[in-house]
Amino acid sequence: MATEDARLLMLVDDEPAQARLISSLATREGWRALTVESCDAALSTLAGKDGKDVDTVLVDGRVPGEEACDFIRQIKLKRPDVAVIMLTASTSPLLAVEAMRAGAIDYLVKPVAPERLAVALRSATRLLPARDELQPLTEKLPSILEFDAMVGTDGSFRTAIAKAATAARGHGHVLVEGESGTGKEMLLRAIQHASTRAKAPVRLVSCEGLPHNTLESLLFGHEKGAFAGAFDRQEGTLAACDGGTLLLDSVDTLPPDIQERLADVLETGIVRPTGAAHGFRIDLRILAASDRPLALLVEDGHFCARLFEALSATRIVLPPLRERAGDIPALTRYFLGKIGELEGMKHHSIADSGLSLLEAYDWPGNVRQLQTVLFRACVHEQREALTAHSFPHLNELLGDADRGESRARGLGVLLYQDDGNIRSLEEIEADIIRLAIGHYHGKMTEVARRLGIGRSTLYRKLHELGIDNAA
């Protein structure tokens, strides 16, 4: 609920119904909302007494007055401290690129999902990790990857991928844990895509940020008249996925009573919509994701033990990017290639100075943050190669600290140890093999061919050098 000292959102929108909806959603997130109907009115408000308290501007691209991107430029010129979010009915990447170049930090497509608006507003209040994200553009990248196309040679990461590939062939529920941005949803989609239920019904539900009643009806459904405002019967996603798969994101944020109710469904196989006299049997597989270790939440009494036991038939942990920094060069090349394929974008390479900067950062937002930081750099960089100067926010955060040699040079292999002596041939050979595995996305036949050795020789070297062969 918004309070007097809550952040102020100015909504520039001439559609009363939409303005009321967004204002209501913003209030739930603890914001105060102020609505104006045109760009001219918005500029006047920003220049007045009320405008001094505005933290974020959400502008509908179709409001009367200035062109939306020109309006964004005017706001950033007059109030560079204000975050601007674009709202539009268009899904064109080109429009999002233009909005970002004008100064927008995010881009929402109508109709706006409550959880998507919540993420955008939270991003507007955070520092670099969030403000370097323009999510809809990065969401244009492929949402489903084959397991062997997932970039990374880090041992714990490849172990997680191998475990996911095995789980995909099974029938039990799966729990994927890892920090925000590590790729949990991507892995859930890959498991579903490779499973025996790939062609059966599938739904994705993100639990975070949804009001209790909305989430309850979304999962279990309700009968007409079950509660005030239930004017029609609604089928829940549990029933809609009968015979298929439910992808349940941010399962750690489920309210306690919904946890218990979901545990009952998984134990009995019977779901009963809210207000219904009887339930009905369903056949459902759940692939769940959690930002926090559920076992610890169970110990603290904050998560249902029965639900944890049911979901964790297979438990997979994705490592944070700071623990797999050696994968940053390969991930960078991959993302730059995909970004270059988007409408309105061009292909970029990355220079050593840029790569060293990326490797020196700890990436609290993980792989998703790396992806969006690269996108932002590509939007603004006119030269072909990204350099350290292409990442001004990272430069500002890291300062003039000596970054040393790249931790895992993407354009070569380190030859020297920290004490200045040459590294052993075995270590260099191991690095070259890891680099090749990452470069060719774990396709071992291609790795062997490019290295000029037989496939059996490659696997022998993997064993001798202690390299995880889960790729």
Description of the structure:
With 471 residues, the protein is an alpha/beta fold. It contains 21 helices and 16 strands. A 5-stranded parallel β-sheet has the order 2-1-3-4-5, with helices on both faces. The chain has a 5-stranded parallel β-sheet with strand order 7-10-13-6-14. α12 crosses α14. The longest helix has 15 residues. It starts with 7 loop residues before the first strand and ends in a 6-residue tail after the last helix. InterPro entries: AAA+_ATPase (IPR003593), AAA_lid_NorR (IPR058031), CheY-like_superfamily (IPR011006), Homeodomain-like_sf (IPR009057), HTH_Fis (IPR002197), P-loop_NTPase (IPR027417), Sig_transdc_resp-reg_receiver (IPR001789), Sigma_54_int (IPR002078). It is found in: Cytoplasm. This is DNA-binding transcriptional regulator NtrC. Keywords: Activator, ATP-binding, Cytoplasm, DNA-binding, Nitrogen fixation, Nucleotide-binding, Phosphoprotein, Repressor, Transcription, Transcription regulation, Two-component regulatory system.
Helical residues, percent:
40-55%
- Please indicate the percent range of residues in DSSP E strands (runs of 2 or more): 5-15%
Number of helices: 21
Overall pLDDT level: 82
What name goes with the CATH superfamily of the largest domain? P-loop containing nucleotide triphosphate hydrolases
CATH architecture of the largest domain: 3-Layer(aba) Sandwich
Instruction: List low-confidence stretches.
Output: 127-140, 404-411
The total domain count is: 3
- Widest sheet: strand order? 2-1-3-4-5
Say how many strands there are: 16
Kindly identify the CATH topology of the largest domain: Rossmann fold
Radius of gyration: 25 Å
Q: Pairing-aware structural class of the strands and helices?
A: alpha/beta
Gap from first CA to last CA: 48 Å
* Biggest sheet architecture: 5 strands, parallel
- According to CATH, what is the class of the largest domain? Alpha Beta
Indicate the overall shape.
flat
